[in-house]
């Protein structure tokens, strides 16, 4: 049976460490973009995010953005900051996840996907057979984003023991 429960819950993307991933055999980290890495309302990354990207890469973790976005902001970020990307990923489908894994020659057991949504990111990771990580959305600036995340509250409550203690 397919689960909506994430394997691990983190407060923010930048709370993830290379050590945490390496201890679990993860070499490839796939990342949702909107509201996981950057809010929808800006294209400018924080210094904290840039430092984190550098730490992850220096720690031997391969990074790839896997986004459902059709907008140019994801490839523009990818090019500007040297992070690979797959757009139009169609999560919770597995096409974009599989494409990223094939690009880097990664197995399911050594891949994780981190995002801010249960019904796209976590479900997509579970369907692809990779480790599912969830973080709190950066900024739910519209009523639709707030409502969508409200629907996730029961799933997150069931998964509360999966919160990583920092």
List keywords for this structure.
single chain; Rossmann fold; six-stranded parallel beta sheet
Topology of this structure?
Elements: E1 8-10, H1 18-23, E2 28-31, H2 47-58, E3 62-66, H3 73-81, E4 84-86, H4 95-104, E5 111-115, H5 118-128, E6 131-135, H6 143-150, H7 153-158
Parallel strand pairs: 1-6, 2-3, 2-5, 3-4, 5-6
Summarize the structure.
By secondary structure, the protein is α/β, with parallel strands linked by helices. It has helices spanning 18-23, 47-58, 73-81, 95-104, 118-128, 143-150, 153-158; strands at 8-10, 28-31, 62-66, 84-86, 111-115, 131-135.
Commentary on this structure:
There is one protein chain. By secondary structure, this protein is α/β, with parallel strands linked by helices. The chain has one domain (8-162): Rossmann fold (3-Layer(aba) Sandwich). It is built from 7 helices and 6 strands, in the order E-H-E-H-E-H-E-H-E-H-E-H-H. The protein has a 6-stranded parallel β-sheet, sandwiched between helices. The longest helix is centred in the N-terminal third of the chain and has 12 residues, at 47-58.
